[in-house]
């Protein structure tokens, strides 16, 4: 299957401290929404290879959260904490996303961001538009230098692979 013609945009706006990531998937919108909002599916794709993902706790609702780790092949865990608000099922949701420790304590040394994740139909496919807003230009540059673009590309390719198994 040629996935080269699927839309993928990674736009950096240093004036507004935002990243905009637009990604097309060969699946209908409800399924893609489920992959973003159910931990048993997130655990199968939400980390770039060779990392894996494990959920410690998740409550997908307004005021809820997702506490998870990306785990490298040696077993080192990199924890994240996402707080959900403004959920409008299968259209969009907003989060506050931060680095944390295994207990869910936010790491104040690393950038926290506001995410808006929007789901749209595109013919038989769907697109996900993710707008990530940082507090400052230095926070935006920190995550870019940490490999955000390459990480997102590799992570979303894992979602492509998962969707192939779910749409057969």
From TrEMBL:
It holds the Pfam family AHSA1. Coiled coil: none annotated. InterPro entries: ASHA1/2-like_C (IPR013538), START-like_dom_sf (IPR023393). It comes from the Bacteria. Residues 27-163 form the Activator of Hsp90 ATPase homologue 1/2-like C-terminal domain. Belongs to the AHA1 family. This is SRPBCC domain-containing protein. The lineage of its organism: Bacteria, Pseudomonadati, Bacteroidota, Flavobacteriia, Flavobacteriales.
């Amino acid at each position: 299957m040629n996935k080269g013609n699927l839309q993928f945009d990674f736009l950096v706006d240093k004036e507004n401290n935002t990243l905009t990531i637009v990604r097309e998937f060969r699946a209908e919108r409800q399924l893609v929404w489920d992959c973003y909002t159910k931990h048993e599916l997130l655990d199968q794709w939400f980390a770039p290879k060779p990392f894996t993902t494990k959920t410690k706790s998740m409550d997908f609702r307004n005021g809820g959260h997702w506490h998870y780790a990306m785990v490298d092949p040696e077993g080192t865990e990199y924890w994240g904490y996402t707080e959900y608000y403004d959920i409008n099922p299968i259209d969009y949701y907003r989060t506050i996303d931060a680095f944390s420790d295994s207990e869910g304590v936010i790491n104040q040394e690393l950038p926290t961001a506001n995410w808006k994740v929007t789901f749209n139909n595109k013919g038989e496919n769907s697109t996900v538009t993710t707008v990530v807003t940082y507090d400052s230009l230095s926070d935006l540059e920190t995550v870019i230098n940490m490999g955000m673009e390459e990480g997102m590309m590799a992570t979303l390719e894992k979602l492509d692979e998962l969707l192939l198994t779910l749409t057969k």
